[in-house]
Amino acid sequence: MTKSGYPYPPDEFDVAVPGGAPVGVHRAPRSGWSSAWPFLLVAVVCAAVAWGGITLLSGGDDPAEASGGASPSTSASAPPSSSPSPSPSTSQSAPAAQYPGDPAKANKSAETIIGVYNNGGEGMDGMATVAQTNLQAAGFEGQIEPKNTGVEGGPAAGSVTANTVLYGGDRADTATAIAQTLGIDAANVKPSEDVSAHPTEGVWVILVTPLAG
After folding, report:
1. How far apart are CA 195 and CA 208, in angstroms?
2. Count of CB atoms within 10 A of residue 40's CB?
3. Residue ranges of the LytR/CpsA/Psr regulator C-terminal domain (predicted)?
4. What single string gives the DSSP state of each residue in the chain?
5. Is residue 90 pLDDT above 60, yes or no?
6. Under the phi-then-psi rule, with left for phi > 0, alpha for psi from -120 to 50, and beta for the rest, what region is 183?
7. What is the mean pLDDT of the chain?
8. What range does the domain containing 189 cover?
9. In the predicted model, what is the mean pLDDT of residues 177-188?
10. What are the tens digits of pLDDT across the range 2-33?
């Protein structure tokens, strides 16, 4: 049908649209943006989903931590050792032994009888006599009898291994004075039942090593 033979007057549907898009009662003109926005929406949604997935997998940590940031310094202080602290050395010297009596109270009178016993051995000849001389010089007035160990009623031979003073009863003061006179250690001044049972002697001096002087 030609335009001149068209029986109806012109209306809005007969007006040409720029770009040549078809026009009709069932279709409105479409712009370029209206065609592109669905694709942009899909891209945004995909990006959001990807970001959410990364955040979920990383546990919400800081990106630097999630990507394996620097490990904690290994120079941090080590935990306290569980091993017990070393105990004080047991090799420390024990307190020095104390003499059992007061030498100022020693009974040096004639009633104190002292038995001086030589335990024998190399270099011991005459040591009992040396002890007797030293005790008399220190003021002991009682009988001082030099003997050898093993005699009846005296200490057995080899009964001690160091110069020793044994005393009976209440003669600790006298025994202390004797030991200090002869240079015998306090640890070797001891009470003795054998001396207490002796009929006359109240103190025994047993010599194992030579005396000084």
Report:
1. 18
2. 10
3. 115-206
4. --GGG--S---GGGSPPTT----BTTB----HHHHHHHHHHHHHHHHHHHHHHHHHHTTT--HHHHTT-PPPPTTSPPPPP-SPPPPPPTTSPPPPP--SS-GGG---STT--EEEEE---TT-TTHHHHHHHHHHHTT--S-EEEEETTSTTSPPTTS-SS-EEEE-TT-HHHHHHHHHHHT--GGGEEE-HHHHH-SS-SEEEEESSPPP-
5. no
6. left
7. 80
8. 103-207
9. 97
10. 555 666 666 665 655 555 555 555 555 566 66
Comparing 90-99, 121-130, 171-180, the range with the smallest average pLDDT is 90-99
**pLDDT for the residue 212:** 77
What does the pLDDT read at residue 31?
A: 63
Tell me if 18 is assigned to some domain.
no
- Quick check: 185 and 176 in contact, CB under 8 A? no
pLDDT at site 66: 46
Q: How far apart are CA 198 and CA 151, in angstroms?
A: 13
CATH code of the domain containing 160: 3.30.70.2390
Residue 125 within a domain: yes
CA distance 164 to 184: 7
Please choose, from the candidates 169, 172, 174, the residue with its C-alpha nearest in 3D space to the C-alpha of residue 194. Answer: 169
Q: Which two tokens stand for residue 65?
A: 């931590």
Residues of the chain with pLDDT > 90: what percent?
44
In a domain, 152, yes or no: yes
Tell whether 96 is covered by a domain: no
